[in-house]
């Protein structure tokens, strides 16, 4: 069992990008971090780096599209720590291709990870947090979940809209259980996923022309807002999707 004074936070999709940087930021803030991802090598390395820096972290392999993996993850969290204070549901994949061209496999993959995988994790988090009587969940969605920014990524856009809807429903259903559920809607963030989108939708080059500040965000900027949503400072914020986007959604 963990020290009751140290918050325990789960980060999915923690082996790279926003998830990896968020896990490091949470550890720096004094939290015990549970990293979960499919890539074992990168996941273990991320946890080792946090521990080498003096933080508390442990990696558990989990494919969020597999119900048994998700159940096993939460069983291990319960046995190891006895509770879960916060969760950052960050696992996600792109979904490139115009709707008339995208394959059934790619369309299903986007929803399997970005929507169904989110729900599978939410289900376990909500059960555990409702039982313990407290908790704060932050789902990492996208500005694409609030606005159709440009064509060519229809499966991704649709899956992120669904993720926003799941956030609202979960918040409504568990508001009286001491559990808050909110979402972040990042704009362009310096990650491998953004770099990979250059060919399909122009990546950072296109985004700089759309963001009022003209700047690309960093994973740490996303993590900082997640930490605020975890904290008592946001205790009256529930069911919201907050843009972390340099002002894009204000245009």
From TrEMBL:
Pfam families referenced in this protein's UniProt entry, alphabetically: adh_short_C2
Tagged with keyword Lipoprotein: no
Record keywords: Oxidoreductase
Annotated Ketoreductase domain residues: 7-192
Heme listed as a keyword: no
PANTHER family: BLR0893 PROTEIN, DEHYDROGENASES, SHORT CHAIN
Family: Belongs to the short-chain dehydrogenases/reductases (SDR) family.
Protein name per the record: Short chain dehydrogenase
Natural source organism: Streptomyces hiroshimensis
